[in-house]
Design brief:
Layout: H1 3-46, H2 50-65, E1 69-76, E2 81-85, E3 89-91, H3 94-106, E4 110-111, E5 115-121, E6 127-134, H4 152-170, H5 181-197, E7 203-209, H6 212-219, H7 221-237, E8 245-250, E9 253-258, H8 262-277, E10 281-285, E11 288-292, E12 296-302, H9 316-336, E13 342-344, H10 347-362, H11 370-381, H12 386-402, H13 407-421, H14 434-441, E14 449-451, E15 462-467, H15 469-481, E16 487-490, E17 495-500, H16 505-515, H17 556-559, E18 568-570, E19 581-586, H18 588-601, E20 606-609, E21 614-619, H19 624-632, H20 634-637, E22 641-644
Parallel strand pairs: 12-13
Antiparallel strand pairs: 1-2, 1-6, 2-3, 4-5, 5-6, 7-9, 7-12, 8-9, 10-11, 14-16, 15-17, 16-17, 18-20, 19-21, 19-22, 20-21
Helix pairs in contact: 1-2, 1-4, 6-7, 8-10, 10-11, 10-13, 11-12, 12-13, 14-15
Length: 661
Amino acid sequence: MNEQEIKEMLDRIAALESKNAALENKFIALEKQVDTINKFVSAITESQSIETTMNEIESVAKQLTDCDKATFYCYDNAGDKFFSHGDYRNWQDTQSADELKKVFVGQKIQNKQKEAVIPLVTSKGKSVGVIVAEKEKGFKKSDFEGFKKGSQMMNTVELALKKEFEHQGRITDELTNLKNRQGLNEYLKNTLCGNLNDGQPANIVMCDIDHFKAVNDTYGHEAGDTILKGVAAVLNDGTRDGADCAFRMGGEEMVLILNCAPEKAVDIAERLRVQIENTVHTVMQGDTPTEVKVTVSMGVCDIRPNINIEITPDNIREVFDGELCAADQAAYRAKNNGRNQVVSYDERVNKAYLTYKAAEILCGGNSETIPKIKDSIVTCLESKNYEMFYSAIDALQDYAAKNPQVSKAADILISKICSAYGYDTPEAEHTEPTFDKAERTAESKSEVKYYNKDEYGKIENKFFLNVTAAAAYKIAQKAQAEGIQFSVKYNGDKSVVTLDGERDKPFIDSVKKEFAPPKPEQPAFTVEDDFPAYDVPTEENTVDDIPPYIPPNVSAEQKQQPERKKATFYNREEYKDIQNKTFIGTDAKTAYDISKFAEKSGVQFSAKFDGKNSAVTVDGVKSKGFIETVRSISAWSDKVQIKAAKSKEQLTPSKNTNRGR
């Protein structure tokens, strides 16, 4: 064998050795991959929760691709959304979810060098999720070997997620495809709890279909189901973004949770209301297809839990229920006001929404300028200067005149803004505030008018000046000039100016001398229609001298008997219906204030007005949060004594003292 042959033989041996080494390395890698997958299968088999399963999927994906980071996105079929797992569920916004959906549906790996989006597809061709992997060195084709369609890993993932998909079915309402009550509980623990602790805004929207019983009675329950599904579809589409979610609470009541600023939540609710109003539902009336439309009443409440307590999965439902009650009250007001409308629980949110919409119109479609324009509008509207107020209105009118496509929306918006702030809707020029016109007209008209109505609820230690409309106008002018907080009810000779009896006592004394109003009688509490007309204690009546509550249907002769000293009651018939009776013992004035607070908070109560021995009765178990809130309010803390009907022990403090709605 010559030297050349020997060299060729050695080269062949070297090539074989190299090939064997490559095969050995490939075998080792394959063996490692099999070991990784076997460990994954074992871990998945033992997994007891979706969170653990998702973590295991991310771990095996990171090992198989040797990447720096891997995130698994699970698909929520009911909501058509994706979520990943952190301390709480991280729901993807619309844009991110759409990008994931393309890969999820297309079932093709998207390799962007340093980022890869990998669909997980079973042997039956079903997509079960998406992996997003990041690798600084970039991905090679071989990195995706373990993710082939129908591989052992894919089928294992399908089995692991099968429990979750079945679970999603259990927490989804079969008729409407919205989350059910169990789904709500899990959402509160898995999502809302974390969002609130992170300081993110969240809002509840209570939706109630108007006259739904009449629909069922007229067209039958099958038609009712068709309408429920149609309305739910609109609401579901309105909650596609991120952590937003829709729930069916029962019957025709549905609830949305929107994770955005309060004014944006009102805007979304209004858009959905209009969409529902314009949706046609085809139902059968006998054998005849019939087109039916329905409307909804919506109540919006932003979630503001007590900042002094930590929100946990254990107390999140209690926090939510308190806020849900407020949203329900707002929806009830929407129904009482004529239905087919959106009402915010907090009037300040309604104003923020109106200024947001005004800015939206004035920005001409440029969303980036909305915040700046909105701030300018707020400055004008909140100035209490009618010239500045109408400068914002003029800007809207001028823009609408130049852009006819928004003129109708602008006219409606202007009317709502003027109503919210207590100004007259402009017709041509704006030269005077509402209370100026009230001076000239209120005495000749029976219509009751208000100025600064929204300020009424903010005034502490309310003091009432009963005067004529002309005097009320002059006092209001003087108060505005001196920066005094006030509210006015114009009703001819029965007009009332409300002021702070403690903080503004010097001002009150000065206007008493200047306008010499008669000693005020106790006016009925009619500034806000939410409360009954029982008599209001002021500094003119000491606690012991408070006149009794006079029902509205008593005769004129009976009303002339203020000297009765015996105890009087409000909501007396409710007393027997209150379970777990607990008494908030206090004086008559404080009992009156607590009664107002209870009525506004939707708390069942009964009140006994008897001088210093007055008491408000509530349910000690169901209204525990309300009781603790009453006890914690500084103005009442030293004046109340809590006593249960069957026990002298005070109630255990509630974990969550809500904001007192």
